[in-house]
Amino acid sequence: MRILLLGEYSNVHNTLAKGLRELGHEVTVASDGDKWKDYPRDIDLSRDLDSPAGTLSFMWRLAKALPSMRGYDVVQLINPIFIELKAERIMPFYRYLRRHNRKVVMGAFGMDYYWTSVNTDIRPLRYSDFNFGDKVRQDFEATRFRDDWIGTPKQTLNEKIAMDCDGIPAGLYEYWATYNEVHTRCPDGRAIRDKMRFIPFPIVMPDIYHTGFYGGPVRIFAGISRNRSAYKGTDIMLRAARRVMEKYPDRMELRIAQGVPFDEYQQMMEGSDAILDQLYSYTPSMNSLLAMSKGIIVVGGGEPENYDILGEKDLRPIINVQPDEESVYASLEELILHPERIPQLKLQSVEYIKRHHDYIKVARLYEKFYSEL
Fold first, then answer.
1. Cβ(275)–Cβ(291) under 8 Å?
2. Sign of dihedral through CA atoms 204, 205, 208, 211?
3. 173 in helix, strand or coil?
4. Would residue 280 be called left, alpha or beta, if left means φ above 0 and alpha means ψ between -120 and 50 degrees?
5. Count of structural domains within the chain
6. Rounded Cα–Cα distance for residues 297 and 307 (Å)
7. Quick count: other Cβ atoms within 10 Å of Cβ 217?
8. How far apart are the two ends of the chain, measured CA to CA in Å?
9. In whole angstroms, what separates CA 173 from the centre of its chain?
10. CATH number (domain holding residue 316)
């Protein structure tokens, strides 16, 4: 198959492309590299929003790239906002892709209208980026995302593409559970939820990973996304970690990476024993999965639903925390006071990635999904 992967989140499309190419498919990745993270791509669609010259350069490159975005068997969009344009200007590009390619699918991989509205209004999850139980989150970042997606051109765009596209792959349990609540009927008679398929995120296993613990302080790593610390709960996790480090200064070391490119981020992560990530998640995301592949323990989202949707009965490598500071504090304290647990959790982390997220295995699931559209 000829496959175009358009847009990028956290290296999902670049990694998927590697797997699909290994299976013999012709794959092109066109993206902005997920902005400052600068992931690899074949067609650069990055845009400098701070200068008129940057906008002109982006529009010229986009116009030049459009003819090469024709004739694919499958076009996969990372999100309704798959290029760096206002939502009201994207629909003509979607129609162009629809007209000149066989099938178009839209990923449920992150922030969009349904993720925002379902978890605000219906609240199928016990907690999420937008709710704690029946209580709707009112912090600045959650409110900003609601205002950005609900009752706006982004909502309209998301609804139109979801109604029209051929399929919707969901990368995490949370996104699957959210889209499963969308019963809107499409022109072909299917509900939007009927187009959905859960497919785990892909990870390339590194050549070297570390599963031992050789004494000394337990090395804890945290990555801070620009302008999203409170939204992802990193601020709370860091407060808990600093409290633990103050109480046990000889038993714990804390490393922090903030707003650095992907290659530098990976280098800073190396050698860590555990990573703090995604306080409000049920599942490990790409950042956590990458860490696990290196033999790094995740302190974050590892709810039973995550293991159930994967069919995992034995491995429990993730130190699951509830969305509050005391839960993170207690989990970190337990880990550093009992470092004998670390090698087993590291071994399970690596095995978990091999079983469920190996990029070739995931590419085969996408291959099957595409062939059944």
1. yes
2. positive
3. helix
4. alpha
5. 2
6. 16
7. 16
8. 13
9. 11
10. 3.40.50.2000
* Per-residue pLDDT tens listing for the chain (373 residues): 999 999 999 999 999 999 999 999 999 999 999 988 899 999 999 998 878 888 889 999 999 999 999 999 999 999 999 999 999 999 999 999 999 999 999 999 999 999 999 999 999 999 999 999 999 999 888 999 999 999 999 999 999 999 999 999 999 999 999 999 999 999 989 999 999 999 999 999 998 888 988 889 999 999 887 666 677 888 899 999 999 999 999 999 999 988 788 888 888 899 999 999 999 999 999 999 999 999 999 999 999 999 999 999 999 999 999 999 999 999 999 999 999 999 999 999 999 999 999 999 999 999 999 999 9
DSSP string, 201-248: PPBPPPS-------SSSEEEEEEE-TT-HHHHTHHHHHHHHHHHHHH-
User: Does residue 236 share a domain with residue 190?
Assistant: no
Residue 228 lies in domain: 218-356
Q: Answer whether residue 207 is part of any domain.
A: no
CATH number for position 131: 3.40.50
Partnered with residue 275 across adjacent β-strands are 221, 298
* Position 32 in a domain: yes
| Residue 149: burial class (beta carbons within 10 Å; 0-12, 13-18, 19+) | buried
For residue 265 the two structure tokens come to: 């981020």
Q: Are residues 366 and 343 in the same domain?
A: no
Question: Do 223 and 286 have their domain in common?
Answer: yes
Q: How many CA atoms lie within 13 A of 345 on its CB side?
A: 20
Please check whether residues 222 and 280 belong to one and the same domain: yes
Closest among 321, 344, 349 to 244, alpha carbons compared: 321
147: helix, strand or coil: helix
Specify if 15 maps to a domain: yes
Query: Is the Cβ–Cβ distance between 172 and 199 less than 8 Å?
Result: no
> What is d(CA 260, CA 256) in angstroms, rounded to the nearest whole number?
11
